[in-house]
Amino acid sequence: PEDLPAQAYVVAIAVARSLSCIPGSLRCAGEDMELCDPQGAGWVALACNSGTCEEYVDGADCGVGPEGPEPNDDALSAVELGILPAGRTGVVAQLTDVQDEDWYSFTLSTGGIVTIGTRGSRDQPDDRVDTYLEVYDADLLRIYVDDDSGPGGYSLLSGLLLAEGTYYARVSTRSDRGGSYQIFWDYLAFL
After folding, report:
1. Measured between alpha carbons, how far is 5 from 1 in angstroms, rounded to an integer?
2. b (16+ CB within 10 A) / e for 41-50
């Protein structure tokens, strides 16, 4: 039209995208679990390596394996998980007091994306402990640390890009007492 200026106009159009799922949410798929991908485009299967999937009000979780052995207070006495399988692996654990720390070692046979976190023990939900989580490489150089990024103030390190090799996770407390917790690993291997 003649009444428009002879300049170019840029028009921004917002396009709403439909999500198939809420990114990061979990649900059960039979005995195993599914994780919604970061784009919300679909579900990724996660094998439950230490139990079967259970639905809860706040999502889903794999059952966990037996309590880790004590003492595991340093890297030399770390609970050895061995080669981490794809999917979710979990362990029930306890920090006996404020000086206690729990170490775990795990190996990736190929690089991948790893999430490591802690959460309250489902067996003792009132026994909350404020966890502090550190991840070390094979030379015991600290490469990641978290205090309160997870739900309920627990520790959560998500989306870690880790190469093939052995790693250590160290859990300690920042609270004035020990208590029970679960530690879990989600591992998506690169193909």
Report:
1. 9
2. eebeebbbbb
Q: 0.90 exceeded by the pTM?
A: no
Go through the chain and tell me how many residues it has.
Answer: 191
Which of 73, 57, 91 lies closest to 185 in space, CA to CA? 91
Cβ-count burial 160-171 (b if 16+ within 10 Å, e if not): bebeeeebbbbb
- Report the distance separating Cα 69 and Cα 91, nearest Å: 10
Cross-sheet strand order for the sheet of 26-29: 26-29, 32-36, 43-46
Alpha-carbon distances, residue 59 vs 14, 28, 30, 126 (angstroms): 31, 9, 14, 19
> How does strand 87-95 pair with strand 156-162?
unpaired
Q: What is the pLDDT of residues 95-128, one digit of tens each?
A: 888 899 999 999 999 999 999 999 886 655 566 7
The phi and psi torsions of 43 (rounded to 5 degrees) equal -100, 140
